[in-house]
Inverse folding.
């Protein structure tokens, strides 16, 4: 066997574990993603060692370990270490996997007697390499090194069989291709299309994890477009498929699907965080739902941001995303249509936008909008207009934009009016906020206290009406005006 030249230094912590195992008589190798990355001259995210020892034998050899899973993996803990990738190094006994009768989990995990057997159960040739840190030998039974050179993803063994054992491998192929910029080999692609329905058996969490890795990679555009070609987009969400081939109005050169991909592509190039990338991908998700013919015989998409927020929520809930991400993305989708013509916009409209999306998300909303704009193929907003809009946001953020920032609160209103807690208090706050959004100078105790008394003197019906008007103005009145302007100017 030949020695393999590896340029990167293998960390001492990894070598130590390997040495302790060998000294105790247990053959061991680096395996999987870390060998692949080393050969690509990339620093591995984590280090995996495969060994002939049993989990019990491994546990005995190291001072601090944990072992609580079905796969025999022992986490060897390195204490007092800065580098996160070295804190826990996983040591796993050689394994084979026998049957997958539920297409999900191997029926039982069986120990293998050789590294050769262990490599044969791995998914792709580039992931089925083993490296001996002491002898510096590479074990490459499936031409993984050649595939690394050819930038190719190919299953170990017959692809149809491997995908029917575990269909998640389909998304793993796509994810690796996206992260590494590799092509998926032809037969492997064909087997993906043939076996795609098996993805119904895979848990949504596992699909989500691969989807997130695709979205967070450098080039999610090609991966998602490949998902379309391989007919597996619907297993991420059937909603994504609906935009394919949907033509837009004259202002757009691209179909809805192409536009969403291009928006995501910009968000990835800018290294925006996950929630902004998801918002870029989903902001127009409801255009196919809302498309109608408008007065000048061109397509309109009224309300697509409102429906879109709901559709986005449904998609992300189905994929079991955490609540925080779902909230962020739905807000960004809901408010992405804000009107930004600095010649015509008023500061009170900007304040209402900040109130609606929230101060924490307002800059993410700007980034979503930038992704949207670049995704239409139109050049960036002129720097002058963008600067002006940004300074308006900064100004609006200095003003109160939420009930919490008013100079009176519910408790004080109850004191002044002698009212008990109840809906009146909320109505009064909403009316006060509306006035302050129009004119921040009104946010003084003196003014607000006197308004509280005036409002309290109104009869219930009157107060309810004013409260409702204020609420709808705070949330959407401005939007109606804006939609009108937009219609007049044919912007979308
Ligand atoms: P990353 O760099 O993202 O960690 P990875 O290839 O190391 O990528 P892991 O999920 O950490 O991915 O898996 C480690 C190794 O285990 C893989 O390289 C592969 O050899 C094997 N493996 C993981 N998942 C599967 C699977 N579903 N089927 C077969 N082998 C798998
Ligand atoms: Mg890994």
């Amino acid at each position: 066997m030949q020695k393999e030249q590896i340029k990167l230094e293998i960390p001492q912590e990894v070598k130590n574990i390997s040495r302790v195992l060998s000294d105790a008589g247990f053959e061991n190798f680096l395996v999987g993603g870390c060998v692949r990355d080393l050969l690509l001259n990339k620093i591995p995210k984590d280090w995996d060692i495969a060994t002939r020892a049993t989990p019990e034998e491994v546990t005995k050899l190291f001072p601090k370990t944990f072992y609580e899973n079905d796969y025999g993996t022992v986490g060897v803990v390195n204490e007092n270490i800065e580098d996160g990738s070295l804190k826990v190094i996983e040591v796993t006994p050689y394994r084979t996997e026998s049957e997958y009768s539920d297409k999900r989990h191997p029926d039982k995990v069986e120990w293998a007697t050789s590294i050769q057997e262990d490599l044969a159960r791995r998914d792709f040739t580039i992931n089925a390499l083993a490296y001996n840190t002491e002898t510096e030998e590479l074990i490459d039974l499936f031409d993984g090194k050649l595939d690394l050179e050819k930038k190719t993803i190919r299953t170990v063994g017959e692809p149809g069989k491997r995908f029917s054992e575990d269909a998640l491998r389909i998304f793993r192929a796509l994810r690796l291709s996206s992260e590494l910029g590799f092509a998926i080999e032809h037969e492997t692609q064909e087997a993906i299309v043939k076996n795609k329905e098996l993805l119904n058996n895979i848990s949504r969490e596992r699909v989500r994890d691969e989807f997130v890795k695709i979205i967070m990679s450098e080039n999610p555009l090609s991966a998602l477009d490949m998902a379309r070609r391989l007919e597996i987009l619907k297993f991420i969400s059937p909603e994504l498929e609906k935009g394919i081939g949907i033509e837009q109005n004259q202002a757009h050169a691209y179909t809805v699907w192409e536009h969403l991909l291009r928006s995501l592509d910009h968000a990835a190039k800018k290294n925006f965080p996950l929630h902004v990338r998801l918002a870029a991908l989903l902001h127009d998700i409801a255009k196919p739902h809302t498309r109608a013919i408008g007065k000048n015989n061109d397509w309109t998409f009224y309300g697509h941001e409102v429906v879109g927020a709901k559709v986005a929520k449904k998609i992300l809930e189905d994929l079991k995303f955490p609540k925080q991400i779902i909230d962020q993305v739905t807000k960004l989708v809901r408010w992405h249509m804000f009107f930004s013509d600095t010649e015509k916009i008023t500061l009170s409209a900007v304040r209402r936008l900040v109130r609606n999306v929230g101060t924490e998300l307002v800059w993410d909303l700007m980034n979503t909008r930038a992704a949207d704009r670049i995704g239409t193929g139109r050049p960036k907003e002129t720097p002058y207009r963008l600067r002006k809009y940004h300074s308006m946001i900064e100004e609006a953020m200095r003003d109160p934009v939420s009930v919490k920032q008013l100079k009176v609160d519910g408790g004080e209103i109850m004191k002044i009016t002698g009212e008990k807690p109840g809906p009146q208090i909320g109505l009064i706050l909403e009316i006060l906020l509306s006035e302050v959004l129009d004119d921040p100078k009104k946010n003084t105790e003196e003014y607000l206290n006197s308004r509280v008394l005036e409002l309290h003197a109104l009869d219930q019906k009157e107060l309810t009406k004013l409260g409702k008007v204020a609420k709808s103005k705070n949330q959407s009145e401005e939007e109606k005006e804006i939609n009108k302007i937009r219609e007049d100017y044919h912007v979308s």
